């Protein structure tokens, strides 16, 4: 499938859906533009930490933000299956990192063995 690859298409699809579903409520709930900037910074920290754990370096600014956002979804889903709910900002960051690391390994298993190497 061309240069883009299945794993990248999956990430782009998740990012578009996430942006359409997540960003508008965040603008209302988190206090507008400042809240959105804070959320982007948190997602970037999550993606950076996950990148350091699985590949020894960052995914890049946009990649870190996308991995942080998607990692939050995956982490909440997986931990929710086990009845685990880590509260607060630190808990959200830990959940996001767990989810982002799992997401990388899921993509490696099902789509692209060389993803994030």
Walkthrough of the structure:
The protein is 79% helix and 0% strand. By secondary structure, it is an all-alpha fold. It has one domain (5-110).
Main attributes of the structure:
117 residues; 79% helix; mainly alpha
Strand content: under 5%
Individual helix count: 4
- Tally the beta strands: 0
Major beta sheet, specifics?
none
Element-by-element helix/strand order = HHHH
Number of domains: 1
What is the C-alpha radius of gyration, as a whole number of Å? 14 Å
The mean pLDDT is 79
The level of helicity is over 70%
> Runs with pLDDT <50, length 5+?
none
- Name the overall outline: globular
Q: Could you give the distance between the termini?
A: 20 Å
What structural class results from the helix and strand content? mainly alpha
Blueprint (SSEs and pairs):
Blueprint: H1 5-29, H2 33-55, H3 61-81, H4 88-110
Helix pairs in contact: 1-2, 2-3, 2-4, 3-4
Q: In brief, what are we looking at here?
A:
By secondary structure, this protein is mainly alpha-helical. It is built from 4 helices and no strands.
